[in-house]
Amino acid sequence: MIRFLLGKLAYLIPTFIGITIVAFGFVRLLPGDPVLLMAGERGISPERHAQLSAQLGFDRPLVVQYLDFIGGLFQGDFGTSLATRRPVLGEFLTLFPATVELSVCAIILATLIGIPLGIFAAIKRGSAFDQVSMGAALVGYSMPIFWWGLLLIILFSGILGWTPVSGRIDLLYFFRNGTGFMLIDSLMSGQKGAFTSAVSHLILPSIVLATIPMAVIARQSRSAMLEVLSEDYVRTARAKGMSAWRVVGVHALRNAMIPVITTIGLQIGVMMAGAILTETIFSWPGVGKWMIDSISRRDYPSVQGGLLLIAAVVMIVNLIVDLLYGIINPRIRHS
Amino acid sequence: MTTSSDTQSERGRALREFWFYFSENRGAVIGLGIFVLLLLTAVFAPLLAPHDPIQQYRDFLLTPPSWQEGGSSQFLLGTDAVGRDLLSRLIFGARQSLIIGAVVVTIAVTGGIILGLVSGFFGGWVDTVIMRVMDVILAFPSLLLALVMVAILGPGLMNAMIAIAIVLQPHFARLTRAAVMAEKEREYVMAARVAGAGRIRLMVRTILPNCLAPLIVQGTLSFSSAVLDAAALGFLGMGAQPPLPEWGTMLAEAREFILSAWWVVTFPGLAILITVLAINLVGDGLRDALDPKLKRS
User: Which residues of chain A lie closer than 8 angstroms to B136, CB-CB?
Assistant: First the structure.
């Protein structure tokens, strides 16, 4: 297992170096003078320009600049936001729990609905249930989620008035020294109605973000289950007179779930892209919306830092999924 | 002469066999039908559209669809906030979407195949370098990387297409590489090599045709991803720029009216969904028809 882990890490290090080069190159590839870009839109005097250029290190060779950049990363220095003048890492960490909370709720929703849907569709292959649920899954898979979010807002917030349109909680509530996870904070605070408010804000964004992963998980569960159901050992179990449910529950399910777990893991990277759109539609104060805002207000240090941090998060999640996969499936670990 | 007619009949047989398996999948045939209709709509857009897509009818701002109260028979699906006919914009939007899909897939497939062939055929450090670069591209969430690239290149449809193509391209490179590695050691390749075939010929004429099936399926799926991603970039203001009638950009312009004028929000999204769905249906059908493992002999 240790060798497996080390192997994975050795594989990831060059990728991570590549990611830092992309993030580093980003600001330098932008058209125009990076110092002027960094200074913002106000424009600066030539003296100040030279001073900033020296301060930011743009007057030194690229390799030195890059090594400096990497050195900074190891000390937690991801640059300073132009918009807020605060460290980018701090900004990111403040907003990250909102994205995690949304993503976790969405992946739970997607798994809880997607897996049973796929399994029943496989068991009842060719039935009306199979056709309808797989049709729905294909629609979900093809969904432009930014439009889907708007439709849900029209229906549930506009017409029915059930859910709020934006934000994470009503402005009435405020939590000091919270964890950043609204569900936990609202529950711990004991303020009446706070938890309900947090949940009602979370419902629509979670559905929107869960839509594509749910569809992918349902399709994958179905095909994995179908494959397992045609295996010899399942036929043997049937031939021995085992009940259909026992065959599925005991023999087929466990083996069918192995590829599904990988699929769920891969969806987390997909969800970071989905979070950008979902958070924008629902004004959800997470890192996705922050990235969009940073790009549109030309806050390049934030974009650079955010790009690096998000890619790092996706990489770490994928590593964890790989390790879990290795634990569940010994064939992978020992190959 | 006989050889060429033999090849032709061989091709015809393969095509008939393909159609047999493809047409077994009802959804795929429906998807193909919708796609053909979309293609015709795009080609004949100037003939089909009742109005100029960027003409602003100032007396008809946010007119509801014709069947609704307050609607006008002049504008079947209503008008947008500056009085442009929604139906005409949707019809011309089909052009943008299909062009986006075609251009993106062409760039991504060409780049991916070249990199994959080189990587799989030569192996060694060339392979390592190319594949590590692909890993780096895949490490970023695709939409985020595309967004950042558009920020570098400047917003606009062409730059959005280039960015999406770069993001989608590693899938083709990986697929081609895997297929080449699998085929490289096969006897027919060895035979061609012994017969004196050069490297380029081996790569392009001998190996590539045998790797096509997964590439075609991936190409279809990438087509729908390209349409979706371009619409998403348009929605975020980084893709096609107004007044170009692109569906995602239309949605972005419609956002502030979601609670007052449902039609400006509903129809462009529906157009995106139908297009992407049709292409995905075709993709599913192609996968079933081209995957030899699934074929019942």
Answer: 15, 18-19, 21-22
Rounded CA-CA distance B140/A20 in Å is: 11
How far apart are the CA of B249 and the nearest CA of chain A, in angstroms?
11
- Residue A201 near residue A169, CB atoms below 8 Å: yes
Q: How many of the other CB atoms lie within 10 Å of CB of B123?
A: 14
Name the nearest CA neighbour of A140 among A202, A206, A210.
A210
Q: Which two tokens stand for residue B30?
A: 């429906």
Instruction: Answer yes or no: is pLDDT of A79 > 90.
Output: no
Q: What are phi and psi of A296, to 5 degrees?
A: -75, -25
Whether omega before B243 lies within 30 degrees of 0, making that bond cis, reads yes
Contact list, A14 vs chain B (CB under 8 Å): 132, 135
Taking residues A309-327, what's their average pLDDT? 84
Beta-carbon contacts of A104 under 8 Å, excluding residues fewer than 6 positions away, are none
Question: Looking at residue B274, what is its pLDDT?
Answer: 96
Which amino acid would we find at residue B140?
Answer: F
Q: Which residue has the higher pLDDT, B275 or A81?
A: B275
Please identify which residue in the block is written with the tokens 């780049």.
Answer: B111
Q: What tokens does B33 get?
A: 């039908």
Name the closest residue on chain B to residue A268, using Cα atoms: B141
Residue pointed to by tokens 């939409």: B143
At residue A143, φ and ψ (nearest 5 deg) are -75, 130
CA distance A155 to chain B (A): 9
Residues A215 and B277 sit within 8 Å (Cβ to Cβ): no
Nearest-CA distance from A151 to chain B in Å? 7
Region at A31 (left for phi over 0; alpha for psi -120 to 50; beta for the rest): beta
Residue appearing with tokens 């870009």: A37
The whole-angstrom separation of Cα A16 and Cα A70 is: 11
Confidence of residue A40 (pLDDT cuts 50, 70, 90): low
Top pLDDT among B89 and A60 is at B89
Q: How many percent of chain B have pLDDT more than 70?
A: 95
Residue of chain A whose alpha carbon sits nearest to that of B275: A142
Q: Which residues pair with A87 in a beta bridge?
A: A80
d(CA B167, CA B228): 13
3-state secondary structure of A71: helix
| Cα(B203)–Cα(A171) distance, integer angstroms | 63
Q: What are phi and psi of A213, to 5 degrees?
A: -55, -40
How does residue B296 score in pLDDT terms, banded at 50, 70 and 90?
very low
SS3 B136: helix
Evaluate if residue A239 carries a pLDDT over 80. yes
Q: Is B125 on the interface with A (CB under 8 A)?
A: no
Q: Cα B41 to the chain's mean position, in Å?
A: 17
Task: Confirm if B272 and B231 have CB atoms less than 8 A apart.
Answer: yes
B72 reaches A (C-beta below 8 A)? no
Residues linked to residue B85 through DSSP beta bridges, in sequence order = B79
- Written as one letter, the residue type at B279 is I
Tell me the residue length of chain A: 335
Each residue's pLDDT tens digit, A121-131: 998 888 999 99
Q: Strand pairing partners for B79?
A: B85
